[in-house]
Amino acid sequence: MMAGRPVFVSNLGDVSPEALATFEGLTSFTEIFGDTLCKKGLDGEILTGNTEELLGGKVICLIFDALWATGASTDANLEYLVKCYRTYKSRGLDFEVIFVSHDKTAEDFAELYGVMPWLALPFDALERRRLVTLRYKAYSGIPHKALVNVDSSIIALDVKALYEDEEGGNFPWLPKPPKPFSELLGNKFQSKSGEVALSDLVDKKIGLYFCRLSTAERPPQPLKLMAAYERLQDKFEVIVVDSSRTPGQGSWDPEPDLAVFENRFAALPFKFCIPFGDPRSLDLVHRFHLRVIGNTSPPLSDNALLMLADHQTGDVLNVNALTILEEEDETDAGVRFPWPARPIADFEGAEGKCLGWSWDTSRAMSLILFTDHVDAESRERAKAALEPIAREYMPRVNFDGEQHILFFMAGADPATKDIRELLHIPDDGVVLVMRVQPPPGADDDISDFFYSVPEQVTEQAIRDFITDPRGATRIQV
Predict the structure, then answer these.
(1) What is the tens place of the pLDDT at every residue in 282-310?
(2) Could you tell me if 97 and 201 lie in one domain?
(3) Are residues 311 and 202 in the same domain?
(4) Alpha carbon distances (Å) from 170 to 84, 85, 166, 353
(5) Which residue range is the domain that position 323 belongs to?
(6) How many CA atoms lie within 13 A of 171 on its CB side?
(7) CA 423 to chain centre
(8) What angle do helix axes 126-135 and 17-24 make, rounded to 10 degrees?
């Protein structure tokens, strides 16, 4: 933590690092949320209630939002969450929702809270709203949601578990140990002529094409992918993965339709897919963090080609090879097959935007090389120092281990400026910023950020930073 520097919280103002450090050590809901919370009366009027009585022993969903951010007093996501909330309460689940307002006025707070049936932090508790926002990681923007366990620890920084569980059958939605990738992918797939085994495809590179195949919303046509597939069928196979929700699962999404699924699959040139309604589809979406429901939009899972390096381990060549395919002419699509990811992605380019999910939402380690305040020659030297390191890490992308690192170059563009301001990093020289996983035994699994400004940006200096980022300056965002 950078001692003495105030931490800016969206539009809510500053928090001192000392106050935040004290607040992060609190454990009881009364200490965290205060003695009283807003609640709704029978006629929708705003009342107050005792925090311990309202929250004791309950799992909590925190909603960080504002009227200016939502743009309206209700939306489809919120309507569906209200439906889930009422179902959970009717079933007697130990569950509660708290609205943490980022509104600019009490009138805006009252308008947005007016459509919510649950609890809220009092609008006049500004300092507490700031601290809760930081503790539960809503500093990257709103709307943001978090699931909190009965001991005040973080279960998840998204609410996909709720959106996929309308009846609450999986309550309290604690994370499950990941399955081995071979089990997750399975061995049997639907083909246009029956069933096929994965073992029949061992001599081919496999791409998983994610799209909404079974809902009314028509998916994009991957024209260059289809052209490349026609040319490369002797060494390339595509398995279509329907990223629509599982039928009967419950969501704001339209109900998947078998007839739509079959018609769309028939219209694609690809031979194989995961069958309609098979839970493997969403398991794969979540495995690769392609769709963080309730916090990000649009999800990458709407249109992505994930190229596997190894279908047994789940090692990945490219999270979305379409970003490279789009650079090819349709007449020679496939010339760069199998479209491995570049070792260093342009943070503001197509690959960088595709991989942005990792910076924002997953536990993947990431390193950004900021070169926006140096000349072109210095920029190229820094890139040359980073490239051999990035190439070493490319085969290790499997979304499970600490060896997975994504590398970005950030140049002079609006996104770089925004990230600089968010992270409070120096304005001069080449800056290395790294997101790392928490140490063993940490209270939660939320990553930390560190930065270094080396005097000489050499390969060894970068290796030293990657080896021991915690020895550099910690960023409190």
Answers:
(1) 888 877 767 544 333 445 567 888 888 88
(2) no
(3) yes
(4) 13, 14, 10, 33
(5) 181-332
(6) 20
(7) 18
(8) 70
